[in-house]
Design brief:
28% of the residues lie in helices and 13% in strands. By secondary structure, the chain is α+β, with helices and mostly antiparallel strands.
């Protein structure tokens, strides 16, 4: 459920101050943050913010389409390695193929 419009978007003060400082000095530095819960504001567009995903910082370049979303949405915390069922089916299919290619007589002398 989104935050109330009456309250406005949430952004951590330390991150807001850093972005405002960069805007006043016209700098384009990478800002590191752990604040995945902060909402992306229009003032952040054009900046690169390094968002922590629990292990490392993921650089996120802010565009206009990202305004209103949370920073954490663009720094995934889990690594997807494929579906286990699909891998199991491929393994079974791979094991069945060499057995079908072998001769039916067992390869012994007649």
């Amino acid at each position: 459920m989104p935050r109330s419009l009456k309250k406005g978007p949430f952004i951590d003060d330390h991150l807001r101050l850093k972005v405002e400082g960069l805007n006043t000095r016209n700098e384009k530095k990478v800002v590191k943050t752990w604040s995945r819960r902060s909402t992306i504001l229009p003032e952040m567009v054009g900046h690169t913010i390094a968002v922590h995903n629990g292990r490392k910082f993921i650089p996120v370049y802010i565009t206009e389409q990202m305004v209103g979303h949370k920073l954490g949405e663009f720094a995934p915390t889990r690594t997807f390695k494929g579906h286990a069922v699909k891998a199991a089916l491929e393994k079974v299919a791979g094991a069945a193929a060499p057995a079908a290619a072998a001769p039916a007589g067992g390869g012994g002398k007649s």
